Amino acid sequence: MNKTVQPNMSVEAFRQTVKDIEQEVGKVIVGQQDLVRQLLLTLVGGGNALLEGAPGLGKTMLVHTLSQVIDCTFSRIQFTPDLMPADIVGTTIITVDENNQRYFRFEPGPIFANMVLADEINRATPKTQSALLEAMQEHKVTVSKTSYLLEPPFLVLATQNPLEMEGTYPLPEAQLDRFFFHIQVKFPNQNELIEIAHRTTSAEENQPSTVTTGAHIIAMQRLARQVPIARQLIMYAVNLLEATHPQHPSAPEAVRRFVRYGASPRGLQAMIIAAKVLALLDGRLSVDYPDLHLVMLPALRHRLILNFEGQAEGIIPDDILRSVIQTISRKS
What we know:
Layout: E1 4-6, E2 9-10, H1 11-25, H2 33-45, E3 49-52, H3 59-70, E4 74-78, H4 86-89, E5 90-96, E6 102-108, E7 115-119, H5 126-129, H6 133-138, E8 140-143, E9 146-149, E10 155-160, H7 173-176, E11 181-184, H8 190-201, H9 214-225, H10 231-242, H11 253-258, E12 259-261, H12 265-281, H13 289-300, E13 305-306, H14 308-312, H15 317-327
Parallel strand pairs: 3-10, 3-11, 4-7, 7-10
Antiparallel strand pairs: 1-2, 5-6, 8-9, 12-13
């Protein structure tokens, strides 16, 4: 079988690049293989990720390390209640040229980078959070009626702390929907904690090597979108998505009882694109059912809007999505 889908990128090169990235990131980040893999699915899928986890789990270090391994520009924005939209996208300032003539010049903000870490995004006001919407969806920024394109590859990685809610502003549904994946950062196990303590308290420093470039990542993104998916698999993904809506006839009992509104079409797009990337990583040129199952939770968990009963009972969206997978037949 010919495994070359794009002239300048083969499946073997695709898989090797991902393997090299994971290996170099592993020199700095202990464990968290699922987290790194989901971040790479987001990057190659051309989306943005929301990282949720307790403080001190290495979220910021992971993003910075990833930018070093891929040789991309990196910027970090610490979200605070007094942060303004201009602090993110930039602003127009008055300056003077060599002839002592004043003119307006645009001063780019930290959003103009390949990888942007929006640290503790839920600490900023909704007005400031909304400054990211255009950049995340259209990869451009508009200031004073002038649009500025963001250089690809472009990736926003936002973090939020699920434990401390005082002084935070929950992300609006419209912004949550623009995240390709919602990734949960798990607490390390005992062996990983021992390794973390050894690495961070010794004189030895582990520096990752650059293994690829932004141009290479763009080629990987193009290759992933060329992976075919059978019509019945698209229909199956649609059935999964429709079953997250309580008014749909195929919705399971958990959805009807606890969900106010189901996942949007963006969730369907994220599932299919991420499944295509998974297929390539497995050396296949077609999507299979397990690919959709593996990406469904991070692609849809943040797109479910629970009703009052679901919020009051502390229902976990992942449990609802698992019930959807069990309910929807592959032959439906």
